[in-house]
Amino acid sequence: MALDTSIAVSQENPFEIAQHQFDIAADMLNLQQDLRDTLRSCMRELIVSFPVGMDDGSVRVLRGYRIQHNIARGPAKGGIRYSPNVSLDEVRALSMWMTWKCAVVNIPFGGAKGGVICDPKSMSIGELERLTRRYTTEISILIGPEKDIPAPDMNTSPQVMAWIMDTYSMHVGYSVPAVVTGKPLSIGGSEGRTEATGRGCLFTIRQALKHLGLQIQKCTAAVQGFGNVGATAASLLHLDGCKVVALSDSRGGIYNPAGIDPRQVVRFKAETGSVVGFPGTKPVSNAELLELPCDILVPAAMESQITSVNAGRIKAKIVAEGANGPVTPDADRKLIEKGIFVIPDILANAGGVTVSYFEWVQDLQSFFWSEEEINARLERIINRAFQDTLAMSTSRSVDMRTAAYLLAVSRVAEATRVRGRYP
Ligand code: NAD
Description:
By secondary structure, the chain is of the alpha/beta class. The protein folds into two domains: 39-187, 3-Layer(aba) Sandwich (Rossmann fold), CATH 3.40.50.10860; 196-348, Rossmann fold (3-Layer(aba) Sandwich), CATH 3.40.50.720. Helix content is 45%, strand content 17%. The chain is built from 14 helices and twelve strands. It has a seven-stranded mixed beta sheet with strand order 9-8-7-6-10-11-12, with helices on both faces. Strand 3 (76-83), helix 3 and strand 4 (110-117) form a beta-alpha-beta unit. Helix 4 (125-139) packs across helix 5 (158-172), helix 6 crosses helix 12 and helix 6 runs parallel beside helix 13 (371-395). The chain is globular and about 55 Å long. The structure holds nicotinamide-adenine-dinucleotide.
């Protein structure tokens, strides 16, 4: 069964999409009305406006958000993004997706997300640091190692996490590494965290290929977005013997049907600022990249990239959602009708939050694990989550996204039910 889009659902508003996805699972699970109403909304929404001193002496007042969707299974967890396009509904949707993501991989966290409306690319390091320290101060009424643990997302780096950790620690008067994950190693970061989302994505692709009886060495892949997730996923696919034929970033894409070594593109992008112009490749637009002939398509840039307009032209056998919400509900139905195996975002990109969980556990224990241990534990968790989702998909005759939602929503609903209602 595909997602039922017969009722009018916004194809653009991410929160309406997230609620619609939830409604389908809630209907199938016969969730009682009070549970449904609880889980359909975000439990806490903090909107902040704060001044940031710019290098030229001027002051800019920026708006930021920190939203906790649900904490029934543990402290809230979720990234912070800096972008001119951040909106309240985007952050709400992302926080809800975090709840389901943590539940689908069965780690003891709820869901949260944060964002600041800004143009980080036009800001200096000093301006970014002042922005981060003030935003951290504003949201410090919500965050904390037992309450809500931020992490990196679009345009927020390990350095930004270090400033968050330092600001919070300065407020309480002692070092609190466990308040944030995705930190540099030198202050309690975890081995393997930087690559974790892309690596988790690779593990789900390997499982999907096995399920479909395909060999990775005979497959081609196209990856949209060449940041933390996309560059890692592309490099690891290449190392597994997959031919990566196309890559892109916000400035455009590159294509070579004979294959591209993503590790060389990482170096090229570090020097030039973009993948565009990489020697031996043809330029393609981001829209064209999605429609190229390939076996594996990894949208790893942003939301709503595959829509009802282009879904019919997608040629891949597997779509692994590296980004959050890259496929709209209408498009999802079309992909499933075409027999494309979609690995939903809450499973395909859950590697990041899984290693964030490891980082938090290590920080709380002040006892650190090797990269081999991290990657082995990550693989076990992702493979188990994939198999749990596949089993649900088979037993309920539903697509992988609906199956992942059924698994996740039932886990969160059970935790909420068994805790009871307060007061
Ligand atoms: P990033 O900032 O490191 O990289 C984003 C990439 O996308 C960049 O290469 C950028 O140039 C490109 N991009 C931006 N706008 C684009 C556009 N319009 N068309 C094509 N490319 C565009 O971000 P990231 O951390 O890799 O996150 C990418 C996606 O993955 C986001 O949806 C994020 O929420 C999701 N995600 C990230 C993590 C993580 O651990 N970093 C975990 C889970 C999900």
